[in-house]
Every structure is written in structure tokens, then in C-alpha cells.
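Q: what does this look like with uracil bound?
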Amino acid sequence: MRAYDLIKKKRDGAELSKEELSFLITEYLSGKIPDYQMSSFLMAVYFRGMTDAETITLTELMLSSGNRFDFSDISIPKVDKHSTGGVGDKTSIILAPLMAAMNIKVPMIAGRGLGHTGGTIDKLESIPGFRTDLTMQEFKNNIKDIGFSIISQSDEIAPADKKLYSLRDVTATVESIPLIAASIMSKKLAEGIGGLVLDVKAGKGAFMKNISDARNLARTMVNIGNSMGVKTIAVITDMNQPLGKTVGNGLEIKECISALRGKMSDDLKEVVLTLGSWMVYAADCVTEEVAISRLSEHVLIKYKAELMDFIEKGDAFKKFVEFVDAQYGDPEVAFKPNMIPAATRVKEIRIPDKGYIQEMDAEKVGTASMLLGAGRRQAEDRIDHSAGIVLNKKTGDYTTPDEPVAMFHYNDETHINEAEKVFLSGIQAGQIPPDKRPIIIDVVI
Ligand code: URA
């Protein structure tokens, strides 16, 4: 077999067999296929796509390039949640302790932020002392003792995805539905879970800019999960504007602590309770071995009330404290969030017009936050955990030039003017309130 022939075959739109895909992945991982040939293959996939069978095979190959966790000694259902990436998206840090409080185990492997999107691992690392590079044994112990753990992807988990993702990142081949689906699912399936809830973001701040692409990605990932024995549900949620009131790592952890104490903005609450309801439902289905079907509105409301109860009783907050302690962070942070380092400078951002905010472009807010130091342009960049943006106003709110719509938190002023320009270019005010967009767009089962 030759890589050249397989690139040509995909370029011409044909389906590759299991043996052919296996040849490409194994030879690339061992260094026998060079980056330039693999880049060319990835670009062919970008334009030609993959069949369902090819996408499932690619996922299996990337998954089996590394280790899989075995939690068969834990009889309690293991469920995870994963987001395709957004701005201000902090739901994992609220949902994992909430599930643990309800006796559902969450073994979560999370990612770092890149470009305008944030990552759970960066957010957690803003807690003094916190570590996400636990050993497999520490990860397992935390899941047994606390009910959840959140770690970063190590070299042992889906190494083929790690190598391919770095290449995709520099060859403009990230935004491909089969490649994103196989990449995310290969890591999630390594967790040894029985159920998975995917938050597929759609809109300006997401990889999938329109709902039809988001549905396609959701359907592809749900097929992969179910075909590999993991009960998988995808919830499509709006990412046209940032989620919640903060963007930036330390600021978002403070917002999570408030949320775990019962104080959440309406949009964040809706996403947390909807995803949480589906996680509970997936866990029940795993336990009882019944098929997942669409939750009726009535049952969904009942689940949401139950989840809110676990937050209000303080059980989810207690789990968060135990988790911070077990991952070498200072648990006092949960009681005194001001212990999270703050930026030395704060700038009020106003818009010149008065009226209702028509839109707040999530990609532009995320880019502005990155320019303040909260994110990376390139994978190797260092980030400033205290930098970011607090949003005083969101889409639909009335504003005047006297009121700041946002506060920029930063230490380094190098890109402050550019950040302000980008941020303001994503906001418009008008005299008529905009139509309210639903935050939960659809559920794919
Ligand atoms: N997140 C991943 O892990 N992989 C992708 O391809 C895109 C987002």
C-alpha cells in the first residue's frame, strides 16, 4: 500500500477501507508517512468528507492508538459531557460536581482553549496549586472517592488524535465534520463511560456557524457513540453570544463558584440544567439498559427542579470543594473566590449609541479576551489566568453611553486598543428589542 494512492483515492471521492485507513494512521504515528502527505490526505477529507463507516473506523483507530480507562470495578453509572467549544462556556465545571452529588460518576478528560474559544483545563488552572496532570491511578481514585475528576489529555489517550490535531491546526483542516467528530469521540470513548451528553454549539462563536452543520456534526457523533456501545445524546445550543457573564479563566471560575451556590444567569442556568437532565437520564438508561428517547417537557421540568435542589442544598458545592482539594488546589478558594489572582487593571467599555443590544458576537468577544491575555493564538503561547471580560450587558439589554457594557480585566496593555476595537465591532444597538433566540436549539438522539 502507498500513501500516495490513498490520498488520490480520497481526492477522487472514493471510500477508504478499514485496512487503508489503518495503514494511514499507523504509518503516520510511527513517522513513516510524513506531515506533507498526511496534510494532503486531511485536505482531501475536508473537501470530500467521509462516509459513516469511514468516520467510525477512524474513531476506532485513533481510540486504539492509546489506552482506555477501565472502570468496570465501579458499578455506579459513568457519564460524561463534552462541548464542541465556545466562549464563556463553563458548564463542565458546574455539571461534574452536580452529577457527583447525585451519585453519578464523571471521568472527564478536558481540553485547553485555542484561538477565541476557552478550555476547561485553563479555567481550572487559575485556582492556585490546581493540577490537571494526574496519574491514571489518581484520576481513578478521585472518581471512586469524590465521584469525578477532570484531567488534561495525556500522551496515553488517543495519541493519534493528538498528532493529527496539531497538524490540522496549522493546515486549515480543523472545520471538517468527520475529523472533528472522530477527534472528540476518540478521546471521550477512552474514558470508559456508559453514557455521553454532547453540547454541540452553533453560531458565531462556534466551529459550526449554522444549525444545519451543527445538526450534522451532532448526528455523526451520536452515531459513533451509539455504535460503540455508549448511550449518546447531543444537545445543540446557541453560541451567537457568550454564555453567562464572564469570559476568561479566573473570572469564569468565580462565576462557577457563584453558580454552585445557586446564583446563575438565566442563559447559563438553562444550558446547565438541560445538559444535566440529559446526563441523569443517560445514567438511568445505562443502569436499566433501556433505550434513550426524547424527554417530554414535563419530565425535563421535573429533572431540572431536582438538579436545582442539589445545587441549593449545597451538595454540588461540597463536591467542588473536595475536588479542588484532591487535585492539589487550595479549597479555601471556594469560600473566598477573591483568592483567585485578579488583574491589576480594569477598563470600562462603553458603546456610543443608546438602545437595545441587537447582537454581541461571541467570536469577537472571545478574540478580544484572547488579546487581553486570556487565550492563545498558538498552542504553545502562555496565558494570563486573571485576564478576561465581565459582561454587564447581553443581547436584548438596553444600554446608554453612560453605562459600561463590559469591563476589560488585564495586566498587559499591549493589545488593549485592538481588543476594544474587535469587541466593539461585534456589538450593535438599535431602537427595537431583538427577537429572543432560544438557547436550546435541538436535541439529537
Ligand atoms: N475539539 C477536539 O477535540 N477536536 C476537534 O477536532 C475540534 C474540537
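Residues 85, 111, 165, 174, 179-180, 183-184 surround uracil (CB under 6 Å). The domain at 79-154+175-334 is CATH 3.40.1030.10 (Pyrimidine Nucleoside Phosphorylase; Chain A, domain 2).
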